[in-house]
Amino acid sequence: MMAMNGHQDKDTHSTRWVARMLSGTMTVEETAAYDRWRDEDEANASSADSLWDMVDSLDAVGEQALEEEMVRDLEAATDAHKRRRRFMGISAIAAGFAAVAVIGATLWMQVPKPAQYETQKGQRTTVYLADGSVMQLNTDTKVSVMVNDSRREITLERGEAFFSVKHDEKHPFLVYAGDTKVQDLGTKFSVRMGASSNLISVLSGLVSVSQRQENNNNTRPQELALLRPGEQAVYTAATHSATVATFDPDRAFAWRKGKARYKQTPLADVVEDLNRYFKAPLEIADSDLRTLPVTGTFSVNDQGAVVDALESAFSLMAVRRSDGVILLYAQQNR
Amino acid sequence: MFRQAPHIRLIAGKADGLTHESHEDGDVSLLPEPEYRANVRQVEKAIKSHHSLLLNWLAKRLGNSSDAADVAQDVYIRIYRYARTEWVENPQALLFKTAANLAINELKRQSRVLQRQVTTADDAVADVVSEIVADGPTPEEAMRQKQDAHALVDAIRQLPEKPRAAFIKNRFEGKTYGDIAVEMSVSESTVEKYMMDALRRLRGRLVRTSASTVLPMPRRGRRGKG
User: Which residues in chain B have Cβ-Cβ distances shorter than 8 Å to A250?
Assistant: First the structure.
């Protein structure tokens, strides 16, 4: 208890000193006094140094903090501006008309109509939704978005998307992918549509996976899986069932940074995965190669670099066929 | 480089720049025509209703009205360009964020803010903060750095209004307590109290004990004084 108080005391002292030192108008005497205080006790020094380290570290986010402060400043200026207008008699009435007109226009524009977002092969994009959630689309992906005051619904029509959902208990965030319904209340997860199965991967929070009910609203859909962070569900359409397993987030979400990561993944699966990104598909020419285990990180922004890496790391040879397909052969002179 | 098959030519790097950060000319438009038009309409409305406010604010910040007009112009150009590819959910927020961002760029160019930020180190952090693809860190490192940066920003965000304003003016705008006292219409000793309060709260959130720092952020020259 004594030691604890001692620490707190040192921290109060060092806070006072550092606050003094940051004033920008330190005299030589004051600086010397600080140095004496710091050096007279090791505990003084360590308390002050950790605070200096913290202050230095904060410089790294200075730009963001400053930007946010400026935005707050602008918002405050707007509010003050609005308040002033409200007190200005006749012009307040005019402003009232303007406000009505604006509200009318806004309501009219918000007649529910899903917005559609689409990426081509090799593209990625980020969409900021009205509710504060953020959606990131991977290559060759199409989604319809219906997010307004009363509901939050996303339909994944093809491809893969990552969602960072703003918490709102009253309005569950729903993602439909074919037959699959994914619901959550504020978390980060991705949904990927495959030909015969969908993949739901959870980075944080809780996600409920169920089968989509087309017509009714009253019967509760049967929950197929409840996913926790680090868990992934494979939903198979044919059997209407989901299996849950753990997964590696670094690999599953690498696409968000333009990367594809594999660990002991058979080349056939790697090629299938990479082909989502490239207009000129890769194809394995020697069937022996299909099971070749591939480990590594590829930048999916650049097919040339990917092919180079495969060639040199796995002793492959790439040959482009006249129809654009890139054939992968085993190198002869191994 | 395709030594074995010289007749293959891949157009490398063509897919680059398709991330959301880039809105240069030639970017593929993701918005269908009707939405694009609605987007432009709402962006235009936001610009019109905030134009004079924004000009005044920029003039105050930059200390010069012709710079303010230039920056405002640049803000509008960027917003229109952005509106071509992405649906704008909150035009006012986009307008303010862009204005703040470009005002900072201009102040940085004049070396009036963020003077302690060393370009190389801060580029890495800036990348992390805005999720730009960087070749440097592995995804694990990047994730951790991002979380750290997030914790730092969040700690500043959580400060009470006045200590936060004082801290940001002092640390990131390089202002002395005297400058800040004038701006905030308080005494210098009150500014110092705000700073102590800010430091105390930040320490409480970011530093585990007085002996060990929990922040592995890139560290540069020590003892940065204003």
Answer: 139-140, 143
Q: Which fold would CATH assign to domain A258-330?
A: Phage tail protein beta-alpha-beta fold (3.55.50)
A237 confidence band (pLDDT: 50, 70, 90): confident
* DSSP letter for each residue of A75-115: HHHHHHHHHHHHTSHHHHHHHHHHHHHHHHHHHHHTS---E
A304 lies within 8 A of chain B by CB: yes
Cα A180 to Cα A14: distance, rounded to the nearest angstrom: 57
Q: In this complex, is the C-beta atom of B6 within 8 Å of any C-beta atom belonging to chain A?
A: no
What CATH code is assigned to A117-248? Answer: 2.60.120.1440
User: Using CA atoms in the order A222, A225, A227, A230, what is the torsion angle rounded to 10 degrees?
Assistant: -160
Short-list B224, B57, B16, B162, CA closest to A78: B57
**Domains with residue ranges and CATH for chain B:** 1-113 (no CATH), 119-206 (1.10.10.10)
Token output for A73: 């400043």
CA distance to partner chain A, nearest, from residue B69 (Å):
16
Compute the average pLDDT of residues B136-147.
Answer: 70
Digit-coded pLDDT (tens) for A94-133: 444 444 444 434 444 444 567 888 888 888 888 878 787 8
| Model ipTM value | 0.74
Contacts of B139 in chain A (CB under 8 A): 250, 253-254, 257, 259, 261, 297
